[in-house]
Amino acid sequence: xxxxxxxxxxxxxxxxxxxxxxxxxxxxxxxxxxxxxxxxxxxxxxxxxxxxxxxxxxxxxxxxxxxxxxxxxxxxxxxxxxxxxxxxxxxxxxxxxxxxxxxxxxxxxxxxxxxxxxxxxxxxxxxxxxxxxxxxxxxxxxxxxxxxxxxxxxxxxxxxxxxxxxxxxxxxxxxxxxxxxxxxxxxxxxxxxxxxxxxxxxxxxxxxxxxxxxxxxxxxxxxxxxxxxxxxxxxxxxxxxxxxxxxxxxxxxxxxxxxxxxxxxxxxxxxxxxxxxxxxxxxxxxxxxxxxxxxxxxxxxxxxxxxxxxxxxxxxxxxxxxxxxxxxxxxxxxxxxxxxxxxxxxxxxxxxxxxxxxxxxxxxxxxxxxxxxxxxxxxxxxxxxxxxxxxxxxxxxxxxxxxx
Length: 404
Fold this sequence. Notes:
There is one protein chain. It contains 16 helices and no strands. With 404 residues, it is mainly α. It has two domains: 190 residues, Up-down Bundle (Growth Hormone, Chain: A), CATH 1.20.1250.20; 195 residues, Growth Hormone, Chain: A (Up-down Bundle), CATH 1.20.1250.20. α4 crosses α5. Keywords: Cell membrane, Membrane, Transmembrane, Transmembrane helix, Transport. It is a multi-pass membrane protein. It is found in: Cell membrane. InterPro entries: MFS (IPR011701), MFS_dom (IPR020846), MFS_trans_sf (IPR036259), MFS_Transporters (IPR050171).
């Protein structure tokens, strides 16, 4: 980030950037190794372990709409601090779980904590970031997030080798520390919604057809996004025969974002068609995934996942920036919460359908099938967002003519 942009960034946003980095470090250090712990030390099947992870994700994304509306009504700071402390308890509980229901309770608490702090943090970013530096700040947040992911692989590996208990307590401690830091140092953020109840806020969002349309289209983006956690690792292991190269390929995605995100954002800052940009990013991701159908070596896979990473660099800053453009100032949290359904539904479909199609492709001797579907999804997202941008332009032009 440029020095002048950093100087223009308020203290509250700098604190939120720092805690976002720490939370990514704690989250991604624990979650991948939780699966290994459940299937290894606890002796569960992979399906049972996946169910626990799904419960955690649904607890977060399914209630994020309500959590965002509550943040608008009761204030962002208090909501995010409570959410971080609830997640801290949930993550730390994994260290002491012995019964099946213990793990599900910990997963539910972890998810509910996220449903409180996630939309509140995003809304606080949107409210406190000046318009002049908004895109660069959101891009830098994406960079810090990926630095946290890379660091989490080192921390997670080191602590899991010693004992999963320490890893679980570390992850919980990170969220407790973030909550404490924000409680002590973050300036008060007054509630923006002083006129509407939680249910009225939620009803308002549901009636916003433009935003609902945007959220539905983004489900396709998250279908593509979730392949990084499922089909890509499986494909790399199948081609190379070595799980070590899975880490190499995934690290390539994160390192590419760390090195190039800010530059890509600067290259595109003059392009005003934000929805079209998100669609272009999704299409680039789809092309990168489709090219994996022809990748029979590590180097070709690295080139293809770099293309995939480039697509995320184009889309992510614009996706985060678009939500406040739709939302009234007093309902930013509710809008971010509802937008989380694009992750919940698109991500779930991406995991379930992506894995099923991958297996079916091999059974039918059509290994290109999952990657072809990714290309089609990318094309659909790009076309639908272009259409939406075109319709938005007509709407604004009509409104100006009506005011003449």
